[in-house]
Amino acid sequence: MTGMAKNSREPLLRQRLSGGDRTNLFLSTALGLGLSPVAPGTCGTLLGVLLHGLVVAAFPSSWNVYVLAAVLIVTCLASRMTAPWAMKHWKSDDPKPFVLDEVAGYLVIPVLFTEGQLWEVMLWGFLLFRFFDIVKLPPARQVDRSLPGAWGILLDDLVAGVQAVLVMYVLLFLGVIG
Predict the structure, then answer these.
(1) CA gap 59, 38 in Å, rounded
(2) Cβ(94)–Cβ(153) under 8 Å?
(3) DSSP-derived secondary structure for 69-105
(4) Is 102 exposed, middle or buried (CB count within 10 Å of its CB: 0-12, 13-18, 19+)?
(5) Which residues contact 45 (CB under 8 A, 6 or more apart)?
(6) pLDDT tens digits for 67-113?
(7) Is the pLDDT of residue 10 over 90?
(8) Residue extents of the structural domains in the chain
(9) Each residue of 13-51: pLDDT tens digit?
């Protein structure tokens, strides 16, 4: 029931939420992208792609990896802080509308993979991250299953980001990227 409260048919955004709940909702759904009725994780990942592009456009190239690392850290902290609220709000151990972890998982890619053209990194990073996040190959599957709560929600996405980076380096070696 993405975008709907568990105990109500009223759309989530029309409910009366406290200021703190609105902030948690705004952050945990990646500015509302996680409320998409179709592929909320994929939609949420797009915020990471957008942030990546904005950093590259706004800062000198020598600063990009540092600014992106800072954005990744802030996103991880926000994910860790808002996950308990989201789990309680949606009454789920891994609520679908909660997609801040997908944003963090994607942001691992431009921090660890600094080769190639921006569009190549964004495209391959997005596609490979979504593949690894959905399929959850080991060790992401073990992290997802063994770590409860906010840490498990976040860390399996970070692992998926690292897996995407490893494949991107293989693609760079093969000449597909760059």
Answers:
(1) 33
(2) yes
(3) HHHHHHHHHHHHHHHHHHHHHTTSSS-TT--HHHHHH
(4) buried
(5) 99, 102, 103, 105, 106, 126, 129, 130, 133
(6) 999 999 999 999 999 999 999 999 999 999 999 999 999 999 999 99
(7) no
(8) 12-174
(9) 556 777 789 999 999 999 999 999 999 999 999 999 999
